[in-house]
Amino acid sequence: MSNPNISNYEIRSMSKEDFDPLFQEHATKIFDDETLVFRLRDALSDDERARIKKLDGSMGEPFMLRLGVFHGDEFVGWHLGRQDSASSFYMQNSAILPAHRRKGLYNELVKRALEVATELGFQSIWSRHNATNNAVIIPKLKQGFVISGMEVSDVFGTLVHLTYFPKEVRRKMMDFRVGQIKPDAETKKLLGI
Question: What is the DSSP letter of 68?
Protein backbone atom coordinates (compact mmCIF):
# COMPACT_ATOMS: atom_id res chain seq x y z
CA MET A 1 0.00 0.00 0.00
CA SER A 2 1.29 3.41 -0.93
CA ASN A 3 0.18 5.20 2.25
CA PRO A 4 3.05 5.10 4.82
CA ASN A 5 0.52 5.26 7.70
CA ILE A 6 -0.69 1.81 6.77
CA SER A 7 2.51 0.10 5.65
CA ASN A 8 2.11 -2.50 8.41
CA TYR A 9 -1.37 -3.49 7.17
CA GLU A 10 -2.24 -5.96 4.43
CA ILE A 11 -5.38 -6.48 2.34
CA ARG A 12 -5.87 -10.15 1.48
CA SER A 13 -8.33 -12.01 -0.71
CA MET A 14 -10.10 -14.57 1.42
CA SER A 15 -12.11 -17.75 0.89
CA LYS A 16 -15.70 -17.95 2.07
CA GLU A 17 -14.67 -20.41 4.78
CA ASP A 18 -12.00 -18.07 6.18
CA PHE A 19 -13.95 -14.83 5.69
CA ASP A 20 -17.43 -15.69 6.99
CA PRO A 21 -16.59 -16.43 10.65
CA LEU A 22 -14.51 -13.23 11.00
CA PHE A 23 -17.17 -11.16 9.24
CA GLN A 24 -19.96 -12.55 11.43
CA GLU A 25 -17.95 -11.91 14.59
CA HIS A 26 -17.26 -8.27 13.80
CA ALA A 27 -20.14 -7.09 11.57
CA THR A 28 -22.71 -7.25 14.36
CA LYS A 29 -20.45 -5.13 16.58
CA ILE A 30 -20.10 -2.47 13.88
CA PHE A 31 -23.59 -2.37 12.40
CA ASP A 32 -26.15 -3.71 14.86
CA ASP A 33 -28.04 -1.60 17.33
CA GLU A 34 -30.47 -4.15 18.70
CA THR A 35 -33.09 -1.49 19.43
CA LEU A 36 -33.25 -0.20 15.85
CA VAL A 37 -32.51 -3.17 13.58
CA PHE A 38 -35.34 -4.57 11.49
CA ARG A 39 -34.52 -8.07 10.33
CA LEU A 40 -36.78 -9.20 7.53
CA ARG A 41 -36.22 -12.83 8.50
CA ASP A 42 -37.91 -12.10 11.85
CA ALA A 43 -41.06 -10.98 10.01
CA LEU A 44 -41.26 -14.09 7.82
CA SER A 45 -42.98 -17.39 8.52
CA ASP A 46 -41.03 -20.65 8.28
CA ASP A 47 -42.73 -21.29 4.93
CA GLU A 48 -41.70 -17.86 3.59
CA ARG A 49 -38.10 -18.39 4.73
CA ALA A 50 -38.06 -21.78 2.98
CA ARG A 51 -39.41 -20.23 -0.24
CA ILE A 52 -36.76 -17.48 -0.15
CA LYS A 53 -34.03 -20.08 0.38
CA LYS A 54 -35.32 -22.00 -2.66
CA LEU A 55 -35.46 -18.81 -4.77
CA ASP A 56 -31.92 -17.93 -3.69
CA GLY A 57 -30.74 -21.35 -4.83
CA SER A 58 -32.08 -20.77 -8.33
CA MET A 59 -29.98 -17.63 -8.84
CA GLY A 60 -26.78 -19.46 -9.65
CA GLU A 61 -23.32 -18.71 -8.30
CA PRO A 62 -22.37 -15.04 -8.76
CA PHE A 63 -18.79 -13.86 -8.39
CA MET A 64 -18.06 -12.93 -4.77
CA LEU A 65 -15.17 -10.79 -3.55
CA ARG A 66 -14.08 -11.18 0.06
CA LEU A 67 -11.21 -8.99 1.21
CA GLY A 68 -9.82 -8.93 4.72
CA VAL A 69 -7.69 -6.16 6.20
CA PHE A 70 -5.05 -7.46 8.57
CA HIS A 71 -2.67 -5.83 11.01
CA GLY A 72 -0.24 -8.70 11.43
CA ASP A 73 -2.56 -11.64 12.09
CA GLU A 74 -5.34 -9.45 13.50
CA PHE A 75 -8.45 -9.08 11.32
CA VAL A 76 -9.28 -5.34 11.42
CA GLY A 77 -11.57 -4.75 8.45
CA TRP A 78 -13.24 -6.20 5.40
CA HIS A 79 -14.96 -5.76 2.10
CA LEU A 80 -17.69 -8.08 0.83
CA GLY A 81 -19.01 -7.60 -2.68
CA ARG A 82 -20.85 -9.60 -5.30
CA GLN A 83 -21.83 -9.69 -8.92
CA ASP A 84 -25.46 -8.66 -9.30
CA SER A 85 -25.74 -8.86 -13.10
CA ALA A 86 -23.59 -9.71 -16.10
CA SER A 87 -21.96 -6.27 -15.98
CA SER A 88 -22.58 -4.89 -12.47
CA PHE A 89 -20.75 -5.40 -9.17
CA TYR A 90 -22.39 -4.51 -5.84
CA MET A 91 -20.06 -3.41 -3.02
CA GLN A 92 -22.27 -4.89 -0.32
CA ASN A 93 -20.46 -4.30 2.95
CA SER A 94 -17.17 -2.76 4.08
CA ALA A 95 -15.83 -1.64 7.43
CA ILE A 96 -12.69 -0.89 9.38
CA LEU A 97 -12.75 -1.61 13.11
CA PRO A 98 -12.79 1.61 15.20
CA ALA A 99 -9.23 1.32 16.59
CA HIS A 100 -7.84 1.24 13.02
CA ARG A 101 -9.83 4.06 11.41
CA ARG A 102 -8.56 7.44 10.18
CA LYS A 103 -5.41 5.95 8.65
CA GLY A 104 -6.51 5.60 5.03
CA LEU A 105 -7.36 1.90 5.23
CA TYR A 106 -10.90 2.38 3.93
CA ASN A 107 -9.58 4.24 0.86
CA GLU A 108 -7.12 1.44 0.15
CA LEU A 109 -9.85 -1.18 0.59
CA VAL A 110 -12.13 0.62 -1.89
CA LYS A 111 -9.22 0.98 -4.36
CA ARG A 112 -8.49 -2.75 -4.17
CA ALA A 113 -12.15 -3.69 -4.68
CA LEU A 114 -12.35 -1.33 -7.69
CA GLU A 115 -9.16 -2.79 -9.16
CA VAL A 116 -10.44 -6.35 -8.90
CA ALA A 117 -13.94 -5.58 -10.21
CA THR A 118 -12.59 -3.46 -13.08
CA GLU A 119 -10.00 -6.08 -14.06
CA LEU A 120 -12.76 -8.70 -14.19
CA GLY A 121 -14.68 -6.51 -16.65
CA PHE A 122 -17.55 -5.12 -14.59
CA GLN A 123 -18.93 -1.98 -16.26
CA SER A 124 -20.51 -0.45 -13.15
CA ILE A 125 -19.56 -0.85 -9.51
CA TRP A 126 -22.10 0.40 -7.01
CA SER A 127 -22.89 0.65 -3.34
CA ARG A 128 -25.57 2.09 -1.10
CA HIS A 129 -25.15 3.91 2.18
CA ASN A 130 -27.07 5.66 4.90
CA ALA A 131 -27.61 9.13 3.45
CA THR A 132 -25.72 10.80 6.31
CA ASN A 133 -22.73 8.42 6.33
CA ASN A 134 -20.23 11.04 5.16
CA ALA A 135 -17.28 9.00 6.45
CA VAL A 136 -17.98 6.56 3.59
CA ILE A 137 -19.71 8.72 0.99
CA ILE A 138 -17.04 11.44 0.75
CA PRO A 139 -14.06 9.08 0.22
CA LYS A 140 -15.98 7.25 -2.49
CA LEU A 141 -16.92 10.49 -4.26
CA LYS A 142 -13.24 11.48 -4.15
CA GLN A 143 -12.36 8.17 -5.84
CA GLY A 144 -14.71 8.86 -8.74
CA PHE A 145 -18.05 7.47 -7.63
CA VAL A 146 -21.13 9.52 -8.52
CA ILE A 147 -24.49 9.72 -6.78
CA SER A 148 -26.74 7.58 -8.93
CA GLY A 149 -29.90 7.23 -6.88
CA MET A 150 -31.77 7.35 -3.61
CA GLU A 151 -33.70 4.60 -1.90
CA VAL A 152 -36.03 4.42 1.06
CA SER A 153 -35.69 0.99 2.65
CA ASP A 154 -37.84 -0.54 5.36
CA VAL A 155 -34.71 -2.26 6.63
CA PHE A 156 -32.09 0.51 6.41
CA GLY A 157 -33.95 3.83 6.08
CA THR A 158 -32.84 6.47 3.56
CA LEU A 159 -29.97 5.31 1.37
CA VAL A 160 -27.86 7.01 -1.27
CA HIS A 161 -26.60 4.92 -4.19
CA LEU A 162 -23.08 5.56 -5.45
CA THR A 163 -21.80 4.19 -8.77
CA TYR A 164 -18.30 3.99 -10.19
CA PHE A 165 -17.94 3.63 -13.96
CA PRO A 166 -14.55 2.23 -15.06
CA LYS A 167 -15.14 3.60 -18.58
CA GLU A 168 -15.06 7.38 -18.88
CA VAL A 169 -17.83 7.35 -21.51
CA ARG A 170 -20.27 5.95 -18.93
CA ARG A 171 -19.37 8.77 -16.54
CA LYS A 172 -19.84 11.32 -19.32
CA MET A 173 -23.21 9.79 -20.17
CA MET A 174 -24.25 10.10 -16.51
CA ASP A 175 -23.18 13.76 -16.47
CA PHE A 176 -25.19 14.34 -19.67
CA ARG A 177 -28.28 12.56 -18.29
CA VAL A 178 -28.40 14.82 -15.22
CA GLY A 179 -27.86 17.98 -17.27
CA GLN A 180 -24.33 18.70 -16.09
CA ILE A 181 -22.78 18.63 -19.58
CA LYS A 182 -23.89 18.92 -23.18
CA PRO A 183 -23.27 15.87 -25.36
CA ASP A 184 -19.90 15.81 -27.08
CA ALA A 185 -19.16 13.95 -30.33
CA GLU A 186 -18.70 10.62 -28.54
CA THR A 187 -21.94 10.82 -26.55
CA LYS A 188 -23.86 12.12 -29.59
CA LYS A 189 -22.69 9.10 -31.59
CA LEU A 190 -23.76 6.71 -28.82
CA LEU A 191 -27.13 8.48 -28.57
CA GLY A 192 -27.60 8.31 -32.34
CA ILE A 193 -27.86 12.10 -32.72
Answer: E
